[in-house]
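A reminder from the course coordinator: this example appears on the midterm review sheet, so study it carefully.

Given structure:
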């Protein structure tokens, strides 16, 4: 866990207690792009279609201050390595701790430009930047819930939802509450452990139920991994089974923004474990 005023990029820790003084850090800028706008043909003002947040650019300025030019150069090389490109890899976790808690963004490094005018006395300022392709802040600690088991057998169940919603006779778990402390929606990582035949998961959102159904049998000692954000489905983390998954309606189970608590239930054999991070705009 980081100390207040510390930042971490890959394995490099910056800020309080290090030779890396973070002089500026701006992770809160939001740029919104409408998909279409125009003047109203018969009325005052304009109209706008759907609007979405663009990727988020995050600039920061880091000053390295040591007792010698050689030490500063060693520290500079370590910083350059931390801000190296991902090449063909995935996003990098950038973590920081402030007065409100510890947070994380998924980023891709874009710039690290040092100013070497004071290098001879052991000082250099570096202009750095990362881009978050998914423009949210997440809790640095992942919330893990479970195992959730379907321990109660029913011959038919009516769930109190906004619209009539009937469930056939299946083993059903007790209601479990998933908490999103943030202000933005956040995806779920579902892990279904076999043996389980055609299990399914119901998330009871305020705007209606979201269901994901697994139209397959998960053998004993095997796990089905479902990411409700990317809609990827992997058996044992390697074999794609996306074609064996269906959802009730267009949307997959996503935790609403809050702070909020959302009930989830599991139907089937085996057991379910959920993982998520609270998300903020």
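Designed residues:
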């Amino acid at each position: 866990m980081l100390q207040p005023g510390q930042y971490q990029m890959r394995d490099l820790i910056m800020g309080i207690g290090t030779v890396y003084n973070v002089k500026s850090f701006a992770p809160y800028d939001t740029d919104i792009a409408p998909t279409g706008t125009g003047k109203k043909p018969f009325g005052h003002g304009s109209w706008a279609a759907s609007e979405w947040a663009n990727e988020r650019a995050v600039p920061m300025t880091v000053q390295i201050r040591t007792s010698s030019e050689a030490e500063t150069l060693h520290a500079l090389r370590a910083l350059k390595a931390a801000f190296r490109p991902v090449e063909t890899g995935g996003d990098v976790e950038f973590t920081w701790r402030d007065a409100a808690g510890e947070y994380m963004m998924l980023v891709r490094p874009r710039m690290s430009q040092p100013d070497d005018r004071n290098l001879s006395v052991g000082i250099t300022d570096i202009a750095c930047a990362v881009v978050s392709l998914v423009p949210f802040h997440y809790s640095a600690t992942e919330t893990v819930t479970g195992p959730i088991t379907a321990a109660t057998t029913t011959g038919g169940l009516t769930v109190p939802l906004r619209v009539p919603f009937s469930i056939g006779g299946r083993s059903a778990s007790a209601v479990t509450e998933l908490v999103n402390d943030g202000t933005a929606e956040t995806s779920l990582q579902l892990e279904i452990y076999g043996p389980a035949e055609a299990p399914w998961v119901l998330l009871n959102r305020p705007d209606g139920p979201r269901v994901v159904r697994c139209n397959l049998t998960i053998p004993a000692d095997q796990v089905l991994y479902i990411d409700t954000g990317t809609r990827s489905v992997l058996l044992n983390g390697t074999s794609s089974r996306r074609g064996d998954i269906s959802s009730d309606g267009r949307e997959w189970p996503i935790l609403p923004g809050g702070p909020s608590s959302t009930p989830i239930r599991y139907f089937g054999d085996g057991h379910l474990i959920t993982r998520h991070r609270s998300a903020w705009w």
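Residues 105 and 137 are 5 Å apart (CA to CA). Residues 6-137 form a domain with the Elongation Factor Tu (Ef-tu); domain 3 fold (CATH 2.40.30.200).
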